[in-house]
Amino acid sequence: MSPMFRKAIAGTVILAATIFSALMVSAQAPTLQEQLAAQYKLVKMGSDSSGYSVVEEGTLLDVQKGGVIGIAYKDTGLSTNRYENGVIHPPSMVAQKGLGMLKKRFGQDEQTTKLFAKGDKVYPAKIDVNVEKDTVTMGIVACDTCNKTDPTTYNKAQIVFQFSKGALAKAGAGEVEDTIGTLLAVSSDDQQPAKGGDQGGQQAAPEQAQQPQAAQPSAEPASIEMGMTPAQVEAALGKPDKKVTLGTKQMYYYKDMKVTFKDGKVADVQ
């Protein structure tokens, strides 16, 4: 075997090994789309004769800036907003009115719009990364239970996060999440205020702490009555372990109790 032939074989082996290694790294490294999908759990919606409802909750997000325009979940089409350099660019009102007139012409209910306010709570409904266009598109659906919206509409919107040219090709998921978070931040609503703390932060004097206290009358047990609102139930029992919304029905699950609401009022306790 000639030296030149041996060199050619060795070069082929090295090239094949390099290509194989690159393919293995590519196969193992999660894409930006996959990383964002792992961070933001999407809401699952369902419908029955009573209308649309949340079948499975997604990651709860807090709207940080007002100005995003949405439409009711039952309406066809999309309300696409663009977010760039910290500024919301809502869809053209001319286009919104044109779609409403078109729906009315075909005998459908005229489309209504919803202006999301700062503090509204929403779920992510879809995430789409387009590296070539440097955009991350997120669909959102309002958490009507959180926002106390009655009757429910589950307003939806689409937000296109526009990044600078070439940014997504080298950006990490953390950087993208930080940008999204300036408009839609992961909610910390689960945090509860401390209970039983002393007012004003002052501690009792040692001699007072050692003195026996007079027996206090036992507190009245929590009472749940028909017609109470979710807020009244939470005031009596605290936040539930789980909430389930099915159309006009809503269930609060506690450790040893299930409270069922119908149209925002207690209808059954089990």
From the structure above, extract its key features.
270 residues, elongated, four-stranded antiparallel beta sheet, seven-stranded mixed beta sheet, 15 strands, alpha+beta, 29% helix
Question: What would a concise description of this structure say?
Answer:
This protein is of the alpha+beta class and 270 residues long. Helix content is 29%, strand content 29%. The strands form four sheets. The chain has a seven-stranded mixed β-sheet with strand order 6-5-10-9-8-3-11.
Tally of individual helices: 8
Q: How many whole angstroms does the radius of gyration measure?
A: 27 Å
Mean pLDDT: 80
Total strands: the figure is: 15
Any low-confidence stretches, pLDDT <50, length ≥5?
Answer: 22-26, 190-209
Helix and strand run? HHEEEEEEHEEEHEHHEHHEEEE
Helix content: 25-40%
Largest sheet: 7 strands, mixed
The helix-and-strand class reads alpha+beta
Shape: elongated
Structural description of this entry:
The relative contact order is 0.13. Strand 1 (44-48) and strand 2 (51-56) form a beta hairpin. This protein has two domains: 32-186, no CATH class; 224-270. It is elongated and about 95 Å long. The strands form four sheets. The chain has a seven-stranded mixed sheet with strand order 6-5-10-9-8-3-11. The chain has a four-stranded antiparallel sheet with strand order 12-13-14-15, with no helix packed on it. It has helices at 3-28, 32-39, 93-105, 144-147, 167-170, 173-181, 206-210, 230-237, and strands at 44-48, 51-56, 61-63, 69-71, 80-84, 87-89, 113-115, 121-130, 135-142, 156-162, 184-186, 242-246, 249-254, 257-262, 265-269. Residues 22-26 and 190-209 have low confidence and may be disordered. The N and C termini lie far apart (86 Å). It contains eight helices and 15 strands. The chain is of the alpha+beta class and 270 residues long.
